[in-house]
């Protein structure tokens, strides 16, 4: 769930229920400067962890609330990982996640004149 496109993301959530959301273990709050609550993560390699629920199938991040395609939210939004912050709406990856949930790709926003 990205930052700048949060309006459209709050009616979607497909990316949080499609991809494995992994990141460097230093992002866990078990480490100085880390923010992601440790108890919501699971180790997947010696140096990487993932959001619980995204390491399995069907995928659904434990921090995602609501119904995909309806009103959704991230319960740890200010603390989410760089992987989540960097995911961007309107990309092919966004469209792929939406498609997996039976949702059409997002229409590009109209450019301001
Ligand atoms: S932490 Fe939040 S933004 Fe990241 S996958 Fe989970 S619900 Fe989505």
From TrEMBL:
It comes from the Bacteria. InterPro entries: Puta_zinc/iron-chelating_dom. It holds the Pfam family CxxCxxCC. This is YkgJ family cysteine cluster protein. It comes from Pseudoduganella lutea. The lineage of its organism: Bacteria, Pseudomonadati, Pseudomonadota, Betaproteobacteria, Burkholderiales.
